[in-house]
Amino acid sequence: MSKDWTLIDAQQAVDQWISQWEEGYWSPLSNLARLTEEVGELAREINQTHGEKPKKGDETSDQIADEIGDILFVLITMANSLDVDLDQALRQVLKKYDIRDGHRFTPK
After folding, report:
1. CB atoms within 10 A of CB 4
2. Residue 5 has what DSSP assignment?
3. How does pLDDT run across 80-94, given as a tens digit for each residue?
4. At what angle do helices 64-81 and 28-50 cross, to 10 degrees?
5. Cβ(35)–Cβ(74) below 8 Å
6. What is the pTM of this model?
7. What dihedral do alpha carbons 31, 90, 72, 84 form, nearest 10°?
8. Contact assessment for residue 77 and residue 23, using Cβ atoms and an 8 Å cutoff
9. What residue ranges of the chain have pLDDT lower than 50?
10. In degrees to the nearest 10, what's the CA dihedral of 50, 35, 3, 46?
């Protein structure tokens, strides 16, 4: 695994990992449920780390990076199963945001 990855590299790595299993890709609806679960876990971590809800004594400390990693994995899995090029999708959304919000905020 190289240090510098592109989105294409990430999509290929996830595909290689999933392709080694007979079950392969789950359905889009199952992956959406997985994504919802992972986002909930991230929300819990952020609430416990930066919010008013303290962790229980037996819970490990800051796992935000792990939860974000899980979310990325599921998003990449969804993109692969639906034939979405994440590089192209991200470029398109950044262009959209630049056009829509380019004058909305105070520039540095």
Report:
1. 5
2. -
3. 999 999 999 999 999
4. 160
5. yes
6. 0.86
7. 40
8. no
9. none
10. 0
CA–CA separation, 19 vs 77, rounded Å?
Answer: 11
Ordered by where they begin, the domains of the chain are 28-101 (1.10.287.1080)
In angstroms, rounded to a whole number, what is the distance separating the alpha carbons of residues 72 and 36? 12
At CB < 8 A and 24+ separation, what contacts does 36-45 make? 38/67, 38/70, 38/71, 38/74, 39/71, 41/67, 41/70, 42/67, 42/68, 42/70, 42/71
- What's the CA gap between 49 and 52, in Å, rounded? 8
Taking a C-beta distance cutoff of 8 angstroms, is the pair 64, 49 a contact?
A: yes
